[in-house]
Amino acid sequence: MNEFTQVLTIAGSDSDGSAGAQADLKTFMARGVYGMSVLTAAVAGNSYGIHDATVMTPKFIDSQIKDIKDDFKVSAFKTGMLSDSATINTVADAIKDHPFGFFVLDPVIITKHGAMLLEEDAYQTLIDKLFPLADIITPNFYEAKKLSGSDLHDREEIVRAAHKLQELGPKNIMIKGEHSDDSISEVEDFVLLEDGQSFWISEPYVKTDHINGTGDTLSSAIVAEVAKGNDLESAIRTAKTFTYNAIKNVIDVGHKYGPINHFIKDDIQ
């Protein structure tokens, strides 16, 4: 019997199932891999918003990681919401001691609408401790702006920003395109690979309030595809298409800002 492909997310729990570890696990299943989770925080919320949250203790986070490593063969993993410096330091130390293969870092720093999620000290800790360990980071448009110190007005600025981010330690960079403006027709992402090659990738913009978990889904789809043995460029292209289809095929759940649709059936292998 062949060993089933196993992957991991280290992220927060969203009680409404739209984002965080829940979106990651749904994506893992949709992409045909066995997913596990280490929870860093838990959020009480629904489609109207977030109303309460708690952060897991460093000891509990470390225990979860150790237990996964002691039993399972993880081929690739990702990090999502890491609430504070203590959490980031705990995760960085733990994954050095217990490596899980290819590392996709989704830097949950700023929302897709531009709101800051991390305090400044935690932001710097993330850069100092986790960026150098990452095989790829997947910042959204606003995160890339802050990380690079650039306004990202045009393609040339985005390309320069990607090179700046690479200098912070990650081997590969995927800067996700802006999608908060209903006047745009395409969401265009830029990818800079470790060997210096680069490419643009785009899908049509979909006007919808059902976009919760898009970043989680994209990064976890990359994890799944790399774990299955696909090269990084193919993994990114598959993840982009899968995420677009999940946005395009709206699922009627929640009353306001809803989830994307991980139940889609597509021809992506």
Automatic annotation (TrEMBL):
Pathway: Cofactor biosynthesis; thiamine diphosphate biosynthesis; 4-amino-2-methyl-5-diphosphomethylpyrimidine from 5-amino-1-(5-phospho-D-ribosyl)imidazole: step 2/3; Cofactor biosynthesis; thiamine diphosphate biosynthesis; 4-amino-2-methyl-5-diphosphomethylpyrimidine from 5-amino-1-(5-phospho-D-ribosyl)imidazole: step 3/3. Keywords: ATP-binding, Kinase, Nucleotide-binding, Thiamine biosynthesis, Transferase. GO terms for molecular function: ATP binding; hydroxymethylpyrimidine kinase activity; phosphomethylpyrimidine kinase activity. It comes from the Bacteria. It catalyses: 4-amino-5-hydroxymethyl-2-methylpyrimidine + ATP = 4-amino-2-methyl-5-(phosphooxymethyl)pyrimidine + ADP + H(+); 4-amino-2-methyl-5-(phosphooxymethyl)pyrimidine + ATP = 4-amino-2-methyl-5-(diphosphooxymethyl)pyrimidine + ADP. One of its GO terms (biological process) is thiamine biosynthetic process. This is Hydroxymethylpyrimidine/phosphomethylpyrimidine kinase. The keyword Ribosomal protein does not apply. GO terms for cellular component: cytosol. Belongs to the ThiD family. The keyword NAD does not apply. The lineage of its organism: Bacteria, Bacillati, Bacillota, Bacilli, Lactobacillales. Its EC number is 2.7.1.49, 2.7.4.7. Residues 14-261 form the Pyridoxamine kinase/Phosphomethylpyrimidine kinase domain. It is an enzyme of class 2 (transferase). It comes from Companilactobacillus versmoldensis DSM 14857 = KCTC 3814. Pfam families: Phos_pyr_kin.
